[in-house]
Amino acid sequence: PSTLKAAGECKGIMMGNVLRQQQIANVEHVALLAEEFNYLTPENATKWMHLQPERGVFDYGKADEIVNFAQKNKIKVKGHCLVWHSQLPQWVDDITDPDELKTVMETHIAQVMGHFKGRMYAWDVVNEAIKTDTDAGDGNPRMRKTVFQRLLGDEYIDMAFKMARKQDPDVKLYYNDYSIDANNDKADYLYEMLKGMVQRGVPIDGVGFQMHIGTPNNIATGAEVAKNMQRIADLGLEIIISEMDINLCGGRNEAWQQALYHDITLACAEQPACSAITFWGLNDGSSWLNSWEGAGCKTEKPMPLLFDNKYQKKQTYEEVINALTGR
Ligand code: G3I
Protein backbone atom coordinates (compact mmCIF):
# COMPACT_ATOMS: atom_id res chain seq x y z
CA PRO A 1 0.00 0.00 0.00
CA SER A 2 1.25 3.43 -0.90
CA THR A 3 -0.71 5.49 1.62
CA LEU A 4 -1.62 5.27 5.29
CA LYS A 5 -5.30 4.88 4.52
CA ALA A 6 -4.64 2.03 2.08
CA ALA A 7 -2.41 0.31 4.65
CA GLY A 8 -5.07 0.82 7.32
CA GLU A 9 -7.76 -0.67 5.12
CA CYS A 10 -5.91 -4.00 5.09
CA LYS A 11 -6.50 -4.17 8.84
CA GLY A 12 -9.91 -2.50 8.96
CA ILE A 13 -8.44 0.58 10.63
CA MET A 14 -9.37 4.11 9.63
CA MET A 15 -6.41 6.45 9.53
CA GLY A 16 -7.13 9.91 10.85
CA ASN A 17 -5.72 13.35 11.33
CA VAL A 18 -6.86 16.79 12.50
CA LEU A 19 -7.66 20.05 10.77
CA ARG A 20 -7.98 23.68 11.79
CA GLN A 21 -10.16 25.93 9.66
CA GLN A 22 -7.21 28.26 8.89
CA GLN A 23 -5.33 25.31 7.35
CA ILE A 24 -7.92 24.76 4.63
CA ALA A 25 -6.33 27.59 2.60
CA ASN A 26 -2.99 25.76 2.63
CA VAL A 27 -3.22 23.73 -0.56
CA GLU A 28 -0.19 21.56 0.12
CA HIS A 29 -1.45 20.76 3.60
CA VAL A 30 -4.95 19.67 2.66
CA ALA A 31 -3.83 17.80 -0.46
CA LEU A 32 -1.57 15.62 1.66
CA LEU A 33 -4.29 15.20 4.26
CA ALA A 34 -6.80 13.98 1.67
CA GLU A 35 -4.22 11.73 0.03
CA GLU A 36 -3.17 9.90 3.17
CA PHE A 37 -6.16 9.94 5.55
CA ASN A 38 -9.80 8.85 5.54
CA TYR A 39 -10.84 10.08 9.00
CA LEU A 40 -10.76 13.57 10.46
CA THR A 41 -11.24 15.37 13.75
CA PRO A 42 -11.64 19.15 13.85
CA GLU A 43 -8.74 20.13 16.13
CA ASN A 44 -10.70 22.90 17.86
CA ALA A 45 -13.73 23.96 15.79
CA THR A 46 -16.31 21.61 17.32
CA LYS A 47 -15.47 22.46 20.93
CA TRP A 48 -18.14 24.18 23.02
CA MET A 49 -16.50 27.63 23.12
CA HIS A 50 -16.50 27.80 19.34
CA LEU A 51 -19.96 26.34 18.71
CA GLN A 52 -21.91 28.11 21.47
CA PRO A 53 -19.75 31.00 22.72
CA GLU A 54 -22.76 32.74 24.23
CA ARG A 55 -25.84 31.11 25.60
CA GLY A 56 -28.21 30.31 22.76
CA VAL A 57 -25.83 31.72 20.12
CA PHE A 58 -24.57 28.94 17.87
CA ASP A 59 -21.81 29.50 15.32
CA TYR A 60 -21.14 26.63 12.95
CA GLY A 61 -19.15 28.53 10.30
CA LYS A 62 -15.64 27.20 10.89
CA ALA A 63 -16.79 23.71 11.76
CA ASP A 64 -18.93 23.52 8.64
CA GLU A 65 -15.96 24.45 6.47
CA ILE A 66 -14.01 21.55 7.94
CA VAL A 67 -16.85 19.07 7.62
CA ASN A 68 -17.53 20.20 4.03
CA PHE A 69 -13.86 19.70 3.15
CA ALA A 70 -14.05 16.20 4.61
CA GLN A 71 -17.25 15.30 2.77
CA LYS A 72 -15.86 16.52 -0.53
CA ASN A 73 -12.90 14.21 -0.01
CA LYS A 74 -14.90 11.24 1.29
CA ILE A 75 -13.34 11.51 4.72
CA LYS A 76 -15.34 10.49 7.79
CA VAL A 77 -15.51 12.97 10.66
CA LYS A 78 -15.49 12.64 14.46
CA GLY A 79 -16.91 15.59 16.37
CA HIS A 80 -14.73 16.63 19.32
CA CYS A 81 -16.11 17.11 21.94
CA LEU A 82 -19.54 17.68 23.48
CA VAL A 83 -18.81 17.82 27.21
CA TRP A 84 -15.37 18.98 28.42
CA HIS A 85 -14.16 21.32 31.15
CA SER A 86 -11.61 23.01 28.85
CA GLN A 87 -12.43 25.36 25.99
CA LEU A 88 -15.74 25.75 27.73
CA PRO A 89 -17.16 29.28 27.71
CA GLN A 90 -17.24 31.14 31.01
CA TRP A 91 -21.03 31.38 30.98
CA VAL A 92 -21.28 27.60 31.42
CA ASP A 93 -18.69 27.56 34.20
CA ASP A 94 -20.66 30.26 36.02
CA ILE A 95 -23.86 28.19 36.28
CA THR A 96 -24.73 27.22 39.87
CA ASP A 97 -28.10 25.53 39.52
CA PRO A 98 -28.00 21.80 38.69
CA ASP A 99 -31.29 21.76 36.77
CA GLU A 100 -30.18 24.72 34.71
CA LEU A 101 -26.87 23.06 33.89
CA LYS A 102 -28.64 19.86 32.90
CA THR A 103 -30.88 21.80 30.54
CA VAL A 104 -27.91 23.66 29.09
CA MET A 105 -26.04 20.41 28.53
CA GLU A 106 -29.03 18.79 26.86
CA THR A 107 -29.62 21.83 24.64
CA HIS A 108 -25.98 21.97 23.56
CA ILE A 109 -25.89 18.28 22.72
CA ALA A 110 -29.24 18.42 20.89
CA GLN A 111 -28.45 21.53 18.86
CA VAL A 112 -24.92 20.54 17.90
CA MET A 113 -25.67 16.93 17.09
CA GLY A 114 -28.80 18.00 15.26
CA HIS A 115 -26.84 20.46 13.12
CA PHE A 116 -24.30 17.84 12.06
CA LYS A 117 -26.68 14.89 11.86
CA GLY A 118 -25.83 12.57 8.99
CA ARG A 119 -22.47 14.26 8.52
CA MET A 120 -20.65 12.95 11.60
CA TYR A 121 -19.45 9.38 11.87
CA ALA A 122 -18.75 9.71 15.59
CA TRP A 123 -18.71 12.07 18.57
CA ASP A 124 -16.50 12.33 21.60
CA VAL A 125 -19.31 12.74 24.11
CA VAL A 126 -17.25 13.27 27.25
CA ASN A 127 -13.59 14.25 27.25
CA GLU A 128 -11.01 14.00 30.04
CA ALA A 129 -13.36 13.44 32.97
CA ILE A 130 -10.74 11.62 35.04
CA LYS A 131 -7.92 13.45 36.73
CA THR A 132 -4.82 12.01 38.32
CA ASP A 133 -4.97 14.10 41.40
CA THR A 134 -1.44 15.16 42.13
CA ASP A 135 -3.02 18.35 43.52
CA ALA A 136 -4.68 16.34 46.26
CA GLY A 137 -1.28 15.01 47.21
CA ASP A 138 -2.06 11.31 46.86
CA GLY A 139 -1.74 11.06 43.08
CA ASN A 140 -4.91 9.00 42.89
CA PRO A 141 -7.17 9.26 39.88
CA ARG A 142 -10.68 10.50 40.55
CA MET A 143 -13.44 12.35 38.79
CA ARG A 144 -12.29 15.81 37.79
CA LYS A 145 -14.16 18.52 39.69
CA THR A 146 -15.62 20.26 36.67
CA VAL A 147 -18.78 22.33 36.78
CA PHE A 148 -20.61 19.27 35.46
CA GLN A 149 -19.27 16.97 38.18
CA ARG A 150 -19.81 19.49 40.98
CA LEU A 151 -23.45 20.20 40.11
CA LEU A 152 -24.63 16.89 38.65
CA GLY A 153 -22.32 14.36 40.30
CA ASP A 154 -20.43 11.60 38.52
CA GLU A 155 -23.72 10.69 36.80
CA TYR A 156 -23.25 13.59 34.38
CA ILE A 157 -21.26 11.19 32.21
CA ASP A 158 -24.10 8.67 31.89
CA MET A 159 -26.49 11.56 31.30
CA ALA A 160 -24.42 12.99 28.47
CA PHE A 161 -24.28 9.64 26.67
CA LYS A 162 -28.03 9.13 27.04
CA MET A 163 -28.72 12.63 25.74
CA ALA A 164 -26.42 12.02 22.78
CA ARG A 165 -27.97 8.65 21.91
CA LYS A 166 -31.41 10.22 22.01
CA GLN A 167 -30.30 12.60 19.26
CA ASP A 168 -28.82 10.01 16.97
CA PRO A 169 -29.18 6.23 17.10
CA ASP A 170 -26.49 5.64 14.46
CA VAL A 171 -23.50 7.79 15.29
CA LYS A 172 -20.65 6.27 17.33
CA LEU A 173 -20.35 7.64 20.86
CA TYR A 174 -16.99 7.68 22.57
CA TYR A 175 -15.40 8.55 25.89
CA ASN A 176 -11.98 10.14 25.28
CA ASP A 177 -9.04 10.63 27.67
CA TYR A 178 -5.24 10.75 28.01
CA SER A 179 -2.73 8.65 29.98
CA ILE A 180 -5.06 5.65 29.94
CA ASP A 181 -2.89 3.52 27.68
CA ALA A 182 -0.15 2.35 30.07
CA ASN A 183 -0.14 0.25 33.24
CA ASN A 184 -1.22 2.96 35.64
CA ASP A 185 -3.92 3.87 38.13
CA LYS A 186 -5.77 6.11 35.70
CA ALA A 187 -6.12 3.26 33.20
CA ASP A 188 -7.49 1.03 35.98
CA TYR A 189 -9.89 3.74 37.08
CA LEU A 190 -11.08 4.18 33.49
CA TYR A 191 -11.61 0.44 33.16
CA GLU A 192 -13.81 0.36 36.28
CA MET A 193 -15.74 3.38 35.06
CA LEU A 194 -16.39 1.75 31.68
CA LYS A 195 -17.36 -1.53 33.30
CA GLY A 196 -19.96 0.31 35.37
CA MET A 197 -21.30 2.11 32.32
CA VAL A 198 -21.67 -1.12 30.39
CA GLN A 199 -23.39 -2.80 33.36
CA ARG A 200 -25.83 0.10 33.65
CA GLY A 201 -26.60 -0.09 29.93
CA VAL A 202 -25.24 3.38 29.16
CA PRO A 203 -25.14 3.85 25.37
CA ILE A 204 -21.39 4.06 24.83
CA ASP A 205 -19.69 2.54 21.78
CA GLY A 206 -16.09 2.88 22.73
CA VAL A 207 -13.16 4.71 24.15
CA GLY A 208 -10.51 6.95 22.64
CA PHE A 209 -6.95 6.52 23.88
CA GLN A 210 -5.51 9.95 23.14
CA MET A 211 -1.93 8.63 23.10
CA HIS A 212 -0.05 11.87 23.62
CA ILE A 213 3.17 10.07 24.41
CA GLY A 214 5.96 11.96 26.13
CA THR A 215 3.66 14.46 27.78
CA PRO A 216 3.91 14.28 31.59
CA ASN A 217 3.16 10.89 33.11
CA ASN A 218 2.50 9.36 29.76
CA ILE A 219 4.96 6.82 28.52
CA ALA A 220 3.45 3.54 27.39
CA THR A 221 4.89 0.47 25.73
CA GLY A 222 3.17 -1.47 22.96
CA ALA A 223 2.55 -4.34 25.38
CA GLU A 224 0.87 -2.04 27.91
CA VAL A 225 -1.33 -0.53 25.23
CA ALA A 226 -2.30 -4.00 23.99
CA LYS A 227 -3.24 -5.11 27.50
CA ASN A 228 -5.43 -2.08 28.14
CA MET A 229 -7.09 -2.49 24.76
CA GLN A 230 -7.82 -6.16 25.42
CA ARG A 231 -9.64 -5.67 28.71
CA ILE A 232 -11.76 -2.92 27.20
CA ALA A 233 -12.51 -5.08 24.16
CA ASP A 234 -13.60 -7.79 26.63
CA LEU A 235 -16.26 -5.38 27.90
CA GLY A 236 -17.64 -5.35 24.36
CA LEU A 237 -16.39 -1.84 23.60
CA GLU A 238 -14.51 -0.47 20.64
CA ILE A 239 -11.14 1.25 21.01
CA ILE A 240 -9.72 4.03 18.91
CA ILE A 241 -6.39 5.79 19.15
CA SER A 242 -7.66 9.33 18.98
CA GLU A 243 -4.86 11.91 19.29
CA MET A 244 -1.52 10.19 18.79
CA ASP A 245 1.76 12.05 18.89
CA ILE A 246 5.10 10.94 20.34
CA ASN A 247 7.34 13.86 21.14
CA LEU A 248 11.12 14.09 21.49
CA CYS A 249 11.11 16.59 24.35
CA GLY A 250 13.00 15.73 27.50
CA GLY A 251 15.96 14.31 25.58
CA ARG A 252 14.19 11.37 23.95
CA ASN A 253 15.62 10.05 20.71
CA GLU A 254 14.27 9.23 17.31
CA ALA A 255 14.97 5.49 17.50
CA TRP A 256 12.76 5.29 20.59
CA GLN A 257 10.07 7.31 18.87
CA GLN A 258 10.13 5.19 15.71
CA ALA A 259 9.98 1.90 17.61
CA LEU A 260 7.07 3.15 19.68
CA TYR A 261 5.11 4.34 16.64
CA HIS A 262 5.57 0.83 15.26
CA ASP A 263 4.64 -1.02 18.45
CA ILE A 264 1.56 1.04 19.30
CA THR A 265 0.25 0.86 15.74
CA LEU A 266 0.80 -2.89 15.89
CA ALA A 267 -1.19 -3.12 19.13
CA CYS A 268 -4.14 -1.58 17.29
CA ALA A 269 -3.60 -3.69 14.16
CA GLU A 270 -3.62 -6.90 16.22
CA GLN A 271 -6.72 -5.94 18.19
CA PRO A 272 -9.98 -6.57 16.28
CA ALA A 273 -11.80 -4.02 18.45
CA CYS A 274 -9.37 -1.24 17.54
CA SER A 275 -10.93 0.62 14.63
CA ALA A 276 -9.03 3.87 14.05
CA ILE A 277 -5.76 5.69 14.60
CA THR A 278 -5.83 9.48 14.52
CA PHE A 279 -2.61 11.50 14.66
CA TRP A 280 -2.85 14.89 16.37
CA GLY A 281 -1.32 16.97 13.61
CA LEU A 282 -0.20 16.43 10.03
CA ASN A 283 3.39 17.62 10.10
CA ASP A 284 5.83 18.58 12.84
CA GLY A 285 5.39 22.27 12.10
CA SER A 286 1.66 22.22 12.84
CA SER A 287 1.72 20.29 16.10
CA TRP A 288 0.02 21.82 19.14
CA LEU A 289 3.16 20.83 21.06
CA ASN A 290 5.13 23.64 19.41
CA SER A 291 3.31 26.11 21.61
CA TRP A 292 3.24 23.90 24.68
CA GLU A 293 5.77 24.45 27.42
CA GLY A 294 5.58 21.21 29.37
CA ALA A 295 7.97 18.26 29.53
CA GLY A 296 10.98 20.14 28.17
CA CYS A 297 9.14 21.20 25.02
CA LYS A 298 9.90 24.86 25.63
CA THR A 299 13.58 24.39 24.89
CA GLU A 300 13.55 21.29 22.69
CA LYS A 301 11.81 20.54 19.43
CA PRO A 302 8.92 18.08 19.92
CA MET A 303 8.99 16.76 16.30
CA PRO A 304 6.17 14.38 17.22
CA LEU A 305 4.50 13.41 13.93
CA LEU A 306 4.80 11.43 10.69
CA PHE A 307 5.71 14.27 8.29
CA ASP A 308 8.42 16.89 8.74
CA ASN A 309 8.12 20.67 8.41
CA LYS A 310 8.36 20.36 4.62
CA TYR A 311 5.63 17.69 4.48
CA GLN A 312 8.16 14.95 3.74
CA LYS A 313 7.56 11.45 5.12
CA LYS A 314 9.68 10.64 8.17
CA GLN A 315 10.84 7.23 9.34
CA THR A 316 7.93 7.35 11.81
CA TYR A 317 5.60 7.20 8.78
CA GLU A 318 7.40 4.11 7.49
CA GLU A 319 7.15 2.43 10.90
CA VAL A 320 3.38 2.94 10.98
CA ILE A 321 3.10 1.43 7.49
CA ASN A 322 5.36 -1.45 8.53
CA ALA A 323 3.20 -2.23 11.55
CA LEU A 324 0.03 -2.21 9.45
CA THR A 325 1.49 -4.44 6.77
CA GLY A 326 3.15 -6.94 9.05
CA ARG A 327 6.71 -5.79 8.54
O1 G3I B 1 -6.41 30.76 16.81
C1 G3I B 1 -5.86 31.57 17.86
C2 G3I B 1 -5.03 32.68 17.29
O2 G3I B 1 -5.86 33.53 16.54
C3 G3I B 1 -4.37 33.43 18.44
O3 G3I B 1 -3.52 34.40 17.93
C4 G3I B 1 -3.55 32.47 19.29
C5 G3I B 1 -2.93 33.18 20.49
O4 G3I B 1 -2.97 32.40 21.64
O5 G3I B 1 -4.40 31.46 19.77
C6 G3I B 1 -5.00 30.69 18.75
O6 G3I B 1 -5.84 29.75 19.34
C7 G3I B 1 -5.21 28.64 19.94
C8 G3I B 1 -5.74 27.37 19.28
O7 G3I B 1 -5.21 26.25 19.92
C9 G3I B 1 -5.43 27.29 17.77
O8 G3I B 1 -4.10 26.96 17.56
C10 G3I B 1 -5.55 28.62 21.41
O9 G3I B 1 -4.94 29.73 22.06
C11 G3I B 1 -5.05 27.33 22.05
O10 G3I B 1 -5.52 27.27 23.39
C12 G3I B 1 -5.60 26.15 21.28
O11 G3I B 1 -5.01 25.00 21.82
C13 G3I B 1 -5.66 23.78 21.55
C14 G3I B 1 -5.86 23.01 22.85
O12 G3I B 1 -6.41 21.74 22.60
C15 G3I B 1 -6.76 23.76 23.80
O13 G3I B 1 -6.99 23.06 24.96
C16 G3I B 1 -4.81 22.97 20.58
O14 G3I B 1 -4.80 23.60 19.30
C17 G3I B 1 -5.38 21.56 20.45
O15 G3I B 1 -4.46 20.77 19.72
C18 G3I B 1 -5.55 20.94 21.83
O16 G3I B 1 -6.12 19.65 21.66
C19 G3I B 1 -6.34 18.88 22.84
C20 G3I B 1 -7.59 18.06 22.62
O17 G3I B 1 -8.68 18.90 22.27
C21 G3I B 1 -7.93 17.23 23.84
N1 G3I B 1 -6.80 16.43 24.25
C22 G3I B 1 -5.53 17.12 24.41
C23 G3I B 1 -5.18 17.91 23.15
C24 G3I B 1 -3.84 18.59 23.28
O18 G3I B 1 -3.84 19.56 24.30
TrEMBL record:
GO terms for biological process: xylan catabolic process. It comes from Marinagarivorans cellulosilyticus. It comes from the Bacteria. PROSITE patterns: GH10_2. Pfam families: Glyco_hydro_10. GO terms for molecular function: endo-1,4-beta-xylanase activity. It catalyses: Endohydrolysis of (1->4)-beta-D-xylosidic linkages in xylans. Residues 1-323 form the GH10 domain. Belongs to the glycosyl hydrolase 10 (cellulase F) family. This is Beta-xylanase. Keywords: Carbohydrate metabolism, Glycosidase, Hydrolase, Polysaccharide degradation, Signal, Xylan degradation. Its EC number is 3.2.1.8.
